[in-house]
Amino acid sequence: MLHKLSVKIIPAILAVILVICAAWFLGYRQGMGRQASAPSGSRHLLFYRNPMNPAITSPVPAKDEMGMDYIPVYSDDAATPAKSLQAQADDFFSEDIPVFGLGTVTMTDQGIQLSGVQVAVAVQEKIQRALRTVGLVVPDETRIHRVQTKVGGWVEALLINYTGQLVQKGGPILSIYSPELLSSQEEFVKARDLASHLSSAAGDRASAHGLRQSARRRLELFDVPADFIDALERSGKPRRTVTLLSPADGFVTAKDIFPGQEVKAGMELYTVTDLSVVWVDAEVYEYEVRDVHVGQEGILTTTFDPSLQLAGKIAYIYPTLNRESRTLKLRFDFGNTDLRLKPGMFVDVNLQIDYGESVVIPDSAVMDSGTRQVVFVDKGDSRFEPRLVKTGVRTEGKTQVLSGVKPHDWVVVRANFLLDSESRLSALIDAALANKK
C-alpha cells in the first residue's frame, strides 16, 4: 500500500516543483524584460537586489553565487518589495494561515480504501465529565476551642492528662488555686450575709441584694461553675481551689499545662476540637475553575476503605490561586459523626460536571496544532473539506464542538493527517497556478 501511495504522491510533488520553477522563471524573464525596456533616465533607480533573497542588495550591478544578475529596483517598485521564496513558503506553512489555505481533497474510492479513511457522524447529545481531585481532611475551624484561664494562679490537679483525650462540654478539666478567686468568694459570702441581716428597711435590703448579685456575677465572669457558686451560697465557706469545666465537646488536640504549674490570666491551657464535622480541602486546576461553584455536591471516597462513601457540598472557594501549582483550593463540609475521617487523611473527591446538550464528535477527528483546531468534513462524492472548529471539553474519547460542525455532519476520524498533507499540497498548487496567471 505504501508503494502505491508513493507512486501517486511523488509525481504530484514533482509537478508542484516544476510549476514553481516555471512561475519563478517567467517572473525572472519578465523582470529582465522590464530591465531591458526601461529607458535610461525615465525611472529613478534605487538599488539592485538578489533575485533569490530580496534582503541582499547592492548599489551597483552584481551577480549572485549562482551567476544570476541582480534585479534593479526603481522608486515605483519600493512600495511593494518582493518576498523571497523562503518567506513565501514560511507564510504558507505557518499555523496562523486561515483554513481556506487548505484545499478541498478529492479522492477515488480506491484511494479512500487504500489510505484507510474512516468517517463518523457528529451528534447532538448531553455531555458530562467526571472531575476527580485529591482532598486533605482538616478540622473545622469553627469547632476549635481554646481553653484559657481568666485569673492567675497555680494548677492543683489535672483532670485531662494527655493529648487526644475525649472531653464533653461541662466536664471537669483542671483544679486551680487562685488568690483572686478566693477573695472573690469571700466577697460573695459577705454580700450574702449582709443581705440576710438587712431585712427591716426595703431600701437597705435592695442595696444588699444588688451587692450579692454583683459578687455572684464576678465569679461567673471568672468561669466559676454555677453549681460551685450555689454550693458556696448554701455553705458560706470559700474553697481553696476551683474546678474549671470544658467549654465544648471534642478531643484535646493541644495541651500546654502540667500539675503545679503557675498560670497567668489569658494563658492557653488546652485546645479542644470537635470532629463531628470536618473540612476537606481539595484543589482544581486553573482551567477547571469555571466548572465548580459553591453548593455543588461532591462524593468522597477513599482507597483504604472502599465502603466509605460520603456526600458533601462545596462550602467555600478560596479567592486566590496558587502561583506555583496553578490550582485553586475548594473547601467541602462532610459529616463525621462516626469519626471515620481523621485530620491529615488524603481522600478522593469526585464531581460530576454537566455541560448540557451540544455537538459531539470523536476525539480523533480533531487536528489540534495548539493555535487552531481543524477537522475534515465528508462532503460526498469522495470530497473532503477542511473546517476550522472551536472545541470545548473532552471526555471519554469525545470532544464537544462549539462551532464549525453541525449535527449530522460526517467527519474524518482516521487517516486525517494524510488528508491534511494532500490538502496543503492542493492549496500550494492552486497558489502557484494563481501566481503564474
Would you give an account of this structure?
The chain is of the alpha+beta class and 437 residues long. Among the domains are: 131-140 and 275-354, Efflux pump adaptor protein, beta barrel domain (Elongation Factor Tu (Ef-tu), domain 3, Beta Barrel); 150-270, no CATH class. 28% of the residues lie in helices and 37% in strands. The chain is built from 7 helices and 24 strands. It has helices at 2-37, 85-93, 109-115, 179-197, 202-221, 226-235, 416-436, and strands at residues 45-49, 57-58, 71-74, 105-106, 118-121, 123-139, 144-148, 153-158, 166-167, 172-177, 241-245, 250-255, 262-263, 268-273, 277-285, 297-301, 309-322, 327-335, 346-362, 367-368, 373-380, 383-395, 398-403, 410-414. A 6-stranded antiparallel barrel has the order 6-15-18-17-16-19. A hairpin with a 4-residue loop joins strand 17 and strand 18. Helix 1 (2-37) runs parallel beside helix 7 (416-436) and helix 4 runs antiparallel to helix 5 (202-221). The chain is elongated and about 125 Å long. The protein starts with a helix and ends with a helix. Mean pLDDT is 80; it is low at 1-7, 18-41, 77-83 and 90-98.
